[in-house]
Predict the structure.
Amino acid sequence: MNIAFAYDHLNALCFGNQLRPVTLRLTPWIVNEYDERLAGAWVEADWAIAIDRALLDHPQLLFGVLLHEMVHQAVHQAGNPAGHGPFFCAAAARAVAPLGLPAPTPTTASTWPVPVARELLGEM
């Protein structure tokens, strides 16, 4: 899967081409501040989206994780607080409206739109 093409396609379809260009990174490990392995991350300091390389063999999951991180980008770009709170949920609802997908809720936002099994990402 060409991640840059997927980013451009989602930007056009879900965000009206309003997202600024980013650096897209495939990486073998993404770990948060709690030492939890992540499938993807919005790296605001670098204006980058990181995606775990293990998802290359799972295009549907990769597409979902990319969309999730693009919502984080949209929230940041609008100057709103980070996280999976109301700004994230509202931005995600707007993004997926053209796709007919369900929007996240505060309880599902961290794994929206598709949960990625930890086993898929491998052992730390």
About this structure: The radius of gyration is 13 Å. The chain has one domain: 3-121. The first helix runs from residue 3 to 15.
